[in-house]
């Protein structure tokens, strides 16, 4: 369990700087360093065990469904990286304390840094591939935050997004690769995966897996052609560049190569892809490192080049090459981190990173000059320094690669070329910056940095030298342990020594050194040669392509979602008709077994008028009033149809609904132009006609097919149980208020909400009030005709009585709350229309919302009442009561429910009407109190 | 008699009516009523989940009318989970609205509660017609809420919303008519058992009606080419409403899962899996379109609307995948995406508030007042929906990717992963503009305050929290998927006590006076 602490401590540590933000900068730095230092101690405590060949592991369940466990391991490779991450991390914390200015938020920086450290430690110690991927993406996220730390700089923001996009994309590829790998192996556990080399390599999915893993690794390690994000990530503060973009995060890619080396390597695909990519990156990076005028740019490209070198080594499919790769990871981390920190000091003290301005700094900062020179020499591969050792191994291994057949000689040749360039840019870094004349217009006068800012570099340089001189003592044990994790089976013999005698690699080294000096001397020719190419700024072209993608997405989508309801509706109906037709084609014959009813003249005439009225509604739709009149004819005939086929309840309801809706629509029409202009093109109209004909045809066929098939339905149960169970002879009403009372409760809720919604819509609406019709004739000044108003007033009590009558008989005879409510609403509407809103409101000063809501509430409470008797919601009961004078009467709880329906219908309808009416009256109330 | 099963509907109904009955009542009363009722709903839902987790399928016969004749509410793992998800989301939306958005128009809290009644009803009901009724309740309530606060954008997008959805309701009715006309019943379990023994002359009709239902449900869940009502409406809606609407598309997806696993499951012979190809291609197309939409978004609300579409596409595609694993995966994904996208809508509103004229548009403007806090929330929320670890989205996406088999992978993986990348690009563009690229000058917007802060934090906090709890959650969704994969248990639970042909005992007798 102690193993968990290596990752957990830095995670907790990311909160420390936030908590200690107010305690001063130095204290904050020290406090931040405590937890990673403990973690480093734990790693050291494990070291003997790991060197002894043990494998400390810990595993906790997290998401078993996914195969994701919190599993960590500490093998040699992990241990090596843990040392790198924590050791360099601690130095960076110290360095950043002096690097960051007063304006920069220290706690934020440290918090991000610790988050990154956690993620990195997670990658290297994870024993579950998915867990590793979690941390992998977390490094992308935290590096995004760190690159964008100076968020006021445009290049920082863009650089951050670019890095996130590229490494994020790589991470997604890696995820796909891991999932495929898990599919093949049956587990994501690294320990298990590493045991199944044969299985993976023989699987048909090997190639996709390899490709996806490599894409992940190459994007992270900035391999060609994904190298472009790294130089722009240098917009980050220098401690970040030193830590993330040279020593650790970019190493995650090569770490992945090393991690998967035991199972993925050894095939031709691996060799070709990895070596060629590595080689291309090596040369590309080296060339541009020579060209760049920005100090950090030089280091960025040299990092790319060295990452290419490591990749190339892993590609060779030879055990010793892999060892060299691991060794170079260590060496590169030490010298490159110190170089970045030195560059940071130069930038910090001089105010610029432009090599053309920086010259002769040795006079101002002799100490730093020496440190930088040693680090550069190590990078160039000068003997007695660690860079020399791994470079020698690299050159030796390049000679071994034979996979290119007759062209195999090119690999050592190109490797030497890479080394030549490496020497040249290392030389340039030192000579151009610290020597070579006097500095030119520096913003600041340079001087030595604070003591402790130099300390991290000194430590790293010391390591470079000691490893270079005494490799056997310094790195051999850990290298051996790490190699054991990378190279399967018998570990190769490692002999780290300064002197191997005169051999070909030594000669190549010598060539590299001397030719490197030569190239440096001739550098102006290279610059001149390079000047003929147009400079391509990856950031700009990235930004440009993102912009272009965004703009074309906008262009396309604006055309697709053009805001036309006609188009959306067309697509909806088209989809419906296609799927419905799809099913209908499976029906063997449209007609079923039922015989048809005989036609009689009344039905035929009615159907004919119905069709014609429907057609009329559509054809006259641009003359709205006429169209509405035709619509009312349709409604009328639907009601008559119900009556003809013995459904008096439906007929009554339909009739009342028709009346109310048509009146409300007429009110709405008042605000609209009376004619709709012709807007659709002929093509559109014919398209729509075609669709509606097909739609009609399909629906008609469905209807016909359904109606001609005999049916056994649950309705017989309702017929049988209406009286004994529901206490009513009107089955329709019993269904509405009892069998399916819950549906009705829902529907009256809908009605209530509709009223409230319309209130919401109209409450603050200010509409243009026409004073004349389309032809300019003023509306009649006689707004409230006398005859109509007196008739309506007389009618009011009568109609209300009728509505009560219909309501009361509802349970046993055609009628019921819904119809009764509509009847009452209709007559009140009539009064409104004949007398005007103001007159009516003065006499009937109801607020309709409470009426409607009370209606629903009565229905709901009726339902709740049954809980008192321990019966389910909405259970009805009824009984016969003998009341004096009236006699025997049946009372049912369903009637209470029906009363709720009645009130809701009246309340909602009138609420809609009153609100529409209010819009028309000159004294519209302003925003009503809520 | 366990009245708990009907409480998710009755409780918000009563609370809604109590706040609506008088328009003039004090703000304080309405707020405490609404928040209190929603909090109580969370408790009820948690109890329901607890009840359901024993694997028994329970039902509640309304009015005592036993299935298949009366309407029933059914409690199984899925419905319990959906109700809990809704109530948790709603609680925080409600708290957010209490910071002032509820007073921008009339009757907010009442409508909000009725909306919850509609959503919960749709999740609980075991009757297809009753499902239609609850669809109507939630449609009309959502329309009213969408209009809350008024304004041109809302009115315009609201018209499209209501028109398309009403057309959808008509199609629903047609489908219901055909189904009742061929099967003669409305109870879903009964329908399923009748479909299993259907004659060949009727299968086509049932198929036709089933596919019409699919059209309606995919309209509700906003699948291409029926999604058009969503982006503008959601972007225009008031934040608390938009956040609640994160569950609305899931109602459609729930309906697809419920109806098609039950009615058209393995027992339905030739009709089995008839929805799969439509959902597969439609879901993939939606996913692709939504990714383009994310890239094209000009402001954060639109971006989040398209993120909703991304989740819809992902879910629909996953629904069409065979097997229980994909079902378990998509249920987990659904929980987390609903909460986090809801939180992002709230966040968009706060950002809008603090940026003055620029609002939520992705343009340079003055700095935010609470830049670090909002930036952190933005990062977590967006990383959560984009599927970046260590947040829940990554687990959900990985589960779905993992559940795809064979050649399905060739389509699903690239589209889902590239869609995720588009989300990352879009979100990093928006985020760096909001939090990094600002004019000089002092921030001056209003602070977000406790209520809005709590609500946003809680919903976006789901991204890390559900990731930590992924173990137990996926365990629950796995058993849910198993329950769904075995519809005969559902049928047994509902139809066995009173088989169709047996004589029915009358549920309510005469009460003597």
Question: Key features?
Answer:
heterodimer; A: 930 residues; mainly alpha; two-stranded antiparallel ribbon; two-stranded antiparallel sheet; 71% helix; disordered C terminus; B: 513 residues; 2 strands
Regions with little confidence, pLDDT below 50 for 5+ residues of chain A: 923-930
| Estimated structural class of chain A | mainly alpha
Question: How big is the Rg of chain B?
Answer: 22 Å
What structural category arises from helix and sheet content of chain B?
mainly alpha
What portion of residues of chain A is helical?
Answer: over 70%
Query: Could you state the oligomeric state of the chains shown?
Result: heterodimer
Report the sheet with the most strands of chain A, covering strand number, pairing sense and barrel closure: 2 strands, antiparallel
- The total of beta strands of chain A comes to 4
Number of helices of chain A: 38
% residues in beta strands of chain B:
under 5%
Rg value of chain A? 43 Å
Mean pLDDT of chain B: 91
Give the strand line-up of the largest sheet of chain A.
Answer: 1-2
Tell me roughly what share of residues is in helical segments of chain B. over 70%
Number of helical stretches of at least 4 residues of chain B: 21
GO molecular function (chain B): NADH dehydrogenase (ubiquinone) activity
Organism (chain B): Larsenimonas rhizosphaerae
Protein name (chain B): Monovalent cation/H+ antiporter subunit D
InterPro entries (chain B): CPA3_Na-H_Antiporter_D, NADH_UbQ_OxRdtase, ND/Mrp_TM
Short note summarizing the structure:
Chain B: GO terms for molecular function: NADH dehydrogenase (ubiquinone) activity. The complex is a heterodimer of chains A (930) and B (513). By secondary structure, chain A is mainly alpha-helical.
């Amino acid at each position: 369990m102690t193993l968990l602490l290596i990752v957990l401590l830095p995670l907790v540590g990311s909160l420390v700087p936030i908590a200690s933000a107010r305690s001063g900068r130095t204290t904050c730095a020290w406090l931040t360093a405590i937890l990673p230092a403990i973690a480093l101690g734990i790693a050291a405590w494990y070291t003997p065990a790991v060197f002894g060949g043990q494998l400390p592991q810990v595993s906790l369940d997290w998401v078993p469904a996914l195969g994701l466990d919190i599993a960590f391991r500490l093998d040699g490779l992990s241990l090596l990286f843990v040392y790198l991450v924590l050791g360099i991390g601690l130095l960076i914390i110290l360095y950043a304390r002096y690097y960051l200015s007063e304006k920069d938020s220290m706690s934020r920086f440290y918090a991000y840094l610790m988050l990154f450290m956690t993620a990195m430690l997670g990658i290297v110690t994870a024993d579950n591939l998915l867990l590793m991927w979690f941390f992998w993406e977390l490094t992308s996220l935290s590096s995004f935050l760190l690159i964008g730390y100076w968020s006021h700089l445009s290049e920082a923001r863009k650089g951050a997004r670019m890095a996130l996009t590229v490494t994020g994309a790589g991470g997604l590829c890696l995820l796909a690769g891991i999932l495929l790998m898990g599919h093949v192996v049956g587990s994501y556990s690294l320990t298990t995966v590493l045991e199944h080399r044969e299985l993976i390599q023989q699987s048909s999915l090997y190639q996709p897996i390899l490709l996806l893993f490599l894409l992940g690794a190459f994007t992270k390690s900035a391999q060609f052609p994904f190298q472009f994000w790294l130089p722009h990530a240098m917009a980050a503060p220098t401690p970040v560049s030193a830590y993330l973009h040279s020593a650790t995060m970019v190493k995650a890619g090569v770490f992945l190569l090393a991690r998967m080396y035991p199972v993925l390597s050894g095939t031709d695909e691996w060799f070709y892809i990895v070596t060629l990519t590595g080689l291309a990156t090596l040369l590309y990076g080296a060339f541009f490192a020579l060209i760049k005028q920005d100090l950090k740019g030089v280091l960025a490209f040299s990092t790319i080049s060295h990452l290419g070198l490591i990749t190339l080594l892993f590609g060779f499919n030879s055990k010793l090459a892999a060892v060299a790769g691991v060794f170079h990871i260590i060496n590169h981390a030490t010298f490159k981190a110190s170089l970045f920190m030195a560059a940071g000091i130069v930038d910090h003290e001089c105010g610029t990173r432009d090599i053309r301005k920086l010259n002769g700094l040795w006079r101002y900062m002799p100490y730093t000059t020496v440190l930088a020179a040693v680090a550069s020499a190590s990078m160039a591969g000068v003997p007695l320094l660690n860079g020399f050792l791994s470079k020698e191994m690299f050159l030796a291994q390049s000679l071994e690669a034979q996979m290119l057949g007759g062209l195999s000689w090119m690999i050592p040749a190109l490797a030497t070329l890479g080394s030549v360039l490496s020497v040249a840019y290392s030389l340039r870094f030192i000579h151009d910056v610290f020597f070579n004349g006097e500095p030119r217009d520096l913003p600041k006068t340079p001087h030595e940095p604070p003591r402790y800012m130099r300390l991290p570099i000194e430590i790293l340089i010391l390591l470079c030298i000691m490893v270079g001189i005494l490799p056997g003592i310094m790195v051999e044990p850990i290298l051996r342990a790490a190699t054991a994790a990378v190279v399967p089976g018998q570990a190769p013999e490692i002999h780290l020594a300064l002197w191997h005698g005169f051999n070909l690699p030594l000669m190549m080294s010598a060539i590299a050194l001397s030719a490197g000096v030569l190239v440096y001397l001739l550098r102006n020719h290279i610059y001149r040669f390079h000047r003929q190419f147009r400079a391509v700024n990856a950031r700009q072209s990235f930004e440009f392509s993102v912009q272009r993608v965004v703009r074309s997405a906008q262009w396309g989508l604006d055309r697709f979602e053009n805001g036309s309801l006609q188009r959306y509706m067309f697509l909806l109906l088209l989809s419906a008709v296609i799927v419905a037709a799809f099913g209908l084609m499976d029906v063997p014959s449209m007609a079923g077994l039922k015989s048809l009813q005989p036609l009689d003249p009344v039905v035929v005439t009615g159907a004919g008028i119905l069709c014609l009225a429907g057609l009329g509604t559509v054809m006259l739709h641009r003359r709205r009033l006429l169209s509405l009149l035709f619509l009312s004819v349709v409604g009328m005939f639907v009601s008559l149809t119900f009556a003809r086929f013995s459904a008096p309840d439906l007929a009554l309801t339909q009739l009342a609904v028709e009346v109310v809706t048509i009146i409300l629509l007429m009110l709405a029409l008042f605000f609209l132009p009376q004619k709709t202009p012709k807007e659709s093109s002929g093509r559109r109209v014919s398209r729509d006609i075609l669709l509606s004909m097909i739609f009609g045809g399909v629906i008609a066929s469905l209807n016909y097919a359904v109606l001609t098939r005999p049916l056994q339905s649950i309705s017989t149960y309702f017929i049988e149980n209406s009286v004994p169970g529901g206490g009513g002879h009107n089955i329709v009403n019993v269904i509405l208020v009892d069998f399916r009372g819950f549906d009705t409760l829902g529907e009256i809720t809908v009605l209530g909400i509709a009223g409230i919604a319309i209130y919401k819509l109209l409450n603050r609406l200010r509409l243009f009030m026409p004073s004349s019709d389309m032809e300019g004739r003023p509306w009649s000044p006689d707004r409230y005709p006398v005859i109509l108003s007196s008739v309506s007033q007389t009618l009011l009590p009568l109609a209300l009585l009728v509505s009560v009558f219909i309501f009361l008989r509802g349970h046993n005879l055609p009628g019921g709350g819904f119809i009764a409510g509509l009847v009452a609403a209709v007559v009140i509407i009539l009064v409104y229309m004949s007398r005007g809103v103001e007159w009516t409101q003065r006499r009937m000063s109801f607020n309709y919302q409470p009426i409607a809501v009370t209606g629903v509430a009565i229905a709901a409470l009726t339902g709740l009442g049954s809980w008192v008797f321990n019966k389910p919601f909405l259970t009805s009961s009824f009984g016969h009561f003998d009341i004096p004078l009236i006699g025997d009467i049946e009372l049912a709880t369903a009637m209470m429910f029906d009363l709720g329906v009645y009130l809701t219908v009246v309340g909602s309808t009138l609420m809609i009407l009153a609100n529409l009416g209010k819009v028309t009256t000159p004294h519209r109330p302003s925003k009503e109190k809520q | 008699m366990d009245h708990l099963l009907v409480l998710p509907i009755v409780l918000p109904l009563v609370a809604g009516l109590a706040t609506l009955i008088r328009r003039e009542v004090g703000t304080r009363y309405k707020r405490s009523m609404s928040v209190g009722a929603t909090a109580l709903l969370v408790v009820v839902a948690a109890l329901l989940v607890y009840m359901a987790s024993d694997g028994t399928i329970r039902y509640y016969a309304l009015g005592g009318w036993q299935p298949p004749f009366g309407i029933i509410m059914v409690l199984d793992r899925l419905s319990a989970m959906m109700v809990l998800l809704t109530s948790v989301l709603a609680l925080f939306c409600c708290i957010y609205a209490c910071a002032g958005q509820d007073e921008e128009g009339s009757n907010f809290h009442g409508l909000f509660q009725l909306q919850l009644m509609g959503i919960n009803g749709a999740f609980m009901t075991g009757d297809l017609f009753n499902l239609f009724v609850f669809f109507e309740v939630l449609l009309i309530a959502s329309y009213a809420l969408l209009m809350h606060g008024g304004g041109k954008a809302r009115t315009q997008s609201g018209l499209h919303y209501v028109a398309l959805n009403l057309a959808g309701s008509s199609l629903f009715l047609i489908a219901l008519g055909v189904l009742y006309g061929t099967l003669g019943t409305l109870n879903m379990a009964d329908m399923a058992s009748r479909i299993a023994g259907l004659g060949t002359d009727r299968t086509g009709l049932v198929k036709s009606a089933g596919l019409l239902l699919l059209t309606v449900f995919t309209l509700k869940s906003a699948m291409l080419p029926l999604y058009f009502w969503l982006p503008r409406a959601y972007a225009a809606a008031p934040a608390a409403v938009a956040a609640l609407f994160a569950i609305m598309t899931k109602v459609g997806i729930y309906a697809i899962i419920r109806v098609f696993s039950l009615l058209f499951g393995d027992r339905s012979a030739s009709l089995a899996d008839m929805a799969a190809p439509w959902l597969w291609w439609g879901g993939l197309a939606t996913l692709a379109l939504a990714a383009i939409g994310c890239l094209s978004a000009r402001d954060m609300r639109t971006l989040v609307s398209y993120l909703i579409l991304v989740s819809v596409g992902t879910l629909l595609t996953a629904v069409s995948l065979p097997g229980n694993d994909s079902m378990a995966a998509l249920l987990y994904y659904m929980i987390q995406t609903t909460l986090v996208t809801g939180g992002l809508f709230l966040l968009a509103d706060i950002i809008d508030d603090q940026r003055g004229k620029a609002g939520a548009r992705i343009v340079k403007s003055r700095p935010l007042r609470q830049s670090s806090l909002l930036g952190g929330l933005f990062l977590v929320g967006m990383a959560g929906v984009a599927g970046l670890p260590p947040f829940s989205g990554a687990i959900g996406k990985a589960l779905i990717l993992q559940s795809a088999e064979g050649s399905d992978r060739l389509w699903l993986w690239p589209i889902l992963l590239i869609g995720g990348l588009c989300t990352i690009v879009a979100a990093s563009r928006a985020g760096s503009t909001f939090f990094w690229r600002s004019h000089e000058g002092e921030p001056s917007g209003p602070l977000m305050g406790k209520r809005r802060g709590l609500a946003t934090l809680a919903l976006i906090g789901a991204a890390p929290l559900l990731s930590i709890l992924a173990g137990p959650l996926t365990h629950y969704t796995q058993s849910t998927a198993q329950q769904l994969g075995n519809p005969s248990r559902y049928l047994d639970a509902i139809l066995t006590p009173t088989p169709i042909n047996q004589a029915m005992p009358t549920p309510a007798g005469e009460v003597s006076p």
